[in-house]
Amino acid sequence: MAAIPHPQEQSVVRAIFSLPVIVAALGYFVDIYDLVLFSIVRVPSLKSFGLSGKELIDYGVYLLNMQMIGMLVGGVLWGWLGDKKGRLKIMFASILIYSLANLANGIAWSLPMYAALRFIAGVGLAGELGAGITLVAEVLPTKIRGYGTMLVASIGVSGAILANVVANTYEWRNAFFIGGLLGLLLLAARVKVAESGMFKTMESKNGVSRGNMLALFTDRSRFFRYLNSIMIGVPIWFVVGVLITFSPEFATELGITGVVSAGNAVMYCYLGLVLGDLSSGLLSQLLQSRKRVVLLFLLLTVGAVALYFLQIGQSPQFFYIVCALLGFAGGYWAIFVTVAAEQFGTNLRATVATTVPNLVRGMVVPITILFQFFRGHLGMEIGALVVGSICIIAAFLSLNALEETFHKDLNYYEEFL
Predict the structure, then answer these.
(1) Domain definitions of the chain by residue range
(2) Cα distances (angstroms) measured from residue 247 to each of 207, 239, 319
(3) N or C: which terminus of the chain carries fewer CB neighbours within 10 A?
(4) How far is Cα 218 from Cα 182, in angstroms, rounded to an integer?
């Protein structure tokens, strides 16, 4: 006879699988679908504009950077609005913008139009994760909020798997159409989601400064909490923005014995990310520590990057397994964003939780610029290793400087002088 779950256990499960958590997870699912779609369709889409050879890398970097610059702009905009107007309004507005941009991307007839739409889509994509994580962190009890953010991230990153399936099934323009339609459908699911109670309480108080991003730079403690929160996530996007996005070119350099598809590399990487986010979230709850889990996954990243460059002459199948290992090692994304959200008070939380992941994504711009520079002087492999080493060392130093936030009560405000 099956054991009857304890009422307290049932309450915990209901809280974790509540509507705000599920809707935030589905929002991030569509966000990731659209975010990685360009990396998957980069080659066929650019070939349709008559590009070939080295142009596929050069214009690929340019378009990726346009998307990431858009995310930097959007991160600041949505973060500020999230603390000013509320978490839910930002989730609605951001998904509407990137959904419409992706629908328009399906009819792009020139490279300048393609670039402009990737920028606009980037602005929209920037609001989804931070607002979702902030909402979930504020509506769930302290002891289980790690499970909620784990669920958001693990469901969300699986959107990359759907992106690869769709891109392999349909022409690249139709893949953008599908992403836009998925986003518009998601808007209907958000109608019944309630705003964070912490935000409502803050909104009713007079004299509480909200969304003051300048305050992050006028106080030494806040500035370094903010900077260190950003730097611990940079290795993830070094892996995605360089090693995975340009996996066909790296496969050629490494002498892989068959053709490597960027779409498959992305899919296997994000499959690893799903498992990594689940594992890091569970481990964080078991160890009751965010920092120890991030440290472990940074060490795994070092090992996975080393294996990536040691797989000389291997098969495409082995290459994809390494991509999955890279993804698993980078599966502390949910913990990283949660750490950032937990570092700051309610009146700055959405600003931080939205800008931090987008600044990390935006770091792809200087990372790819550095990669291009070192690639020209040292070759693809050594150039990538140099850039990767810089990112990983910076992450270790920043992690050491951050406080542990697992048990931290989030119902407080930042005081500005």
Answers:
(1) 15-190+212-401
(2) 52, 10, 9
(3) N
(4) 41
The CATH code that applies to domain 15-190+212-401 is 1.20.1250.20
Pair of tokens at residue 360: 């990390």
**44/357 Cα distance (integer angstroms):** 28
Contact 236, 392 (CB under 8 A): no
Calpha distance 185→188 (Å, rounded):
6
**Rounded to an integer, what distance in angstroms lies between the CA atom of residue 159 and that of residue 26?**
9
Segment-wise mean pLDDT, segments of 10 residues, the chain, 417 residues? 46 65 79 80 81 77 81 78 68 81 84 87 78 72 73 77 84 86 76 54 56 74 88 90 86 86 82 84 84 93 93 89 93 82 76 80 82 85 90 93 78 63
User: Is residue 282 within 8 Å of 257, Cβ to Cβ?
Assistant: no
Please, which residues have CB within 8 angstroms of residue 115's CB and are 6 or more apart in sequence?
A: 62, 63, 66
Spatial neighbors of 312 by CB under 8 A, at least 6 apart, are: 254, 255
- Residue 363 main-chain phi, psi, to 5 deg: -65, -15
**Sign of CA pseudo-dihedral 235, 394, 78, 149:** positive
Close Cβ partners of 372 (under 8 Å, ≥ 6 residues apart):
61
